[in-house]
Write a structure and sequence with these properties.
The structure is a single chain. By secondary structure, the protein is of the alpha+beta class. The chain has 3 helices and 12 strands; from the N terminus they run ββαβααβββββββββ. The protein has a domain of about 110 residues: Jelly Rolls (Sandwich), CATH 2.60.120. Strands 3, 4, 6, 7, 10 and 12 form a 6-stranded antiparallel β-sheet that branches. A 4-stranded antiparallel β-sheet has the order 5-11-8-9. β6 and β7 form a beta hairpin. α2 runs antiparallel to α3.
Length: about 180
């Protein structure tokens, strides 16, 4: 939580407020998740094999995305059958929060369902609603699943890190 005195722990009521839809109903919650270390290492092995050309890692990434989906299924973390996964790299710690229901993916606008820190340093994700901001520190391999109602969110590097490397899992809008 960010208030006038700095960061502090969020209360249960403040966490719940971040998960309320436009009609004031609870529409899910923010869940902290983690992928196993071998899947995190596999990502870096795949990324290092690309020689800087994204087309070189595409076939390997499709296989990796299937492994992630299988892991989510194993953990009973629901993903829609049309979920998309892509990796984003960002160094913009000053970006304004954006609606999770209007997240820009490489193939269009959609709903962000989950974020996983693929980097090798901690990352922070800020979830916002009108009266509060909740900051979650994600260690490598950790992530969050977002509520169906949508939230405002942004990612930032932590303590001087250069880049935030994240897997975005979402669903394209049908509009």
């Amino acid at each position: 939580m960010l208030d006038s005195t700095g960061w502090r722990g969020a209360s249960a009521d403040e966490m719940a407020a971040a998960c309320i839809d436009e009609q004031g109903r609870t529409a899910g919650d923010v869940s902290v998740i983690a992928i196993p270390k071998h899947l995190l290492r596999r990502w870096w092995s795949l990324a290092e094999s690309g020689d800087g050309d994204p087309t070189h890692i595409k076939p390997g990434f499709e296989s990796y995305a299937r492994e992630i989906a299988e892991y989510f299924n194993y953990k009973s973390w629901p993903l829609p059958t049309d979920a998309l996964m892509e990796v984003a790299v960002s160094d913009d710690a000053t970006a304004a929060p954006q609606p999770s229901r209007a997240t820009r993916f490489s193939r269009g606008i959609g709903t962000l369902l989950a974020v996983i820190n693929l980097g090798d340093e901690n990352l922070r994700i800020v979830l916002s609603e009108e009266s509060a901001q909740v900051r979650v520190i994600l260690e490598p391999g950790e992530g969050v699943m977002l509520p169906a109602c949508g939230v405002l969110w942004n990612l930032a590097t932590f303590r001087g890190s250069d880049l935030a490397v994240t897997m975005l899992i979402g669903r394209l809008s049908t509009d």
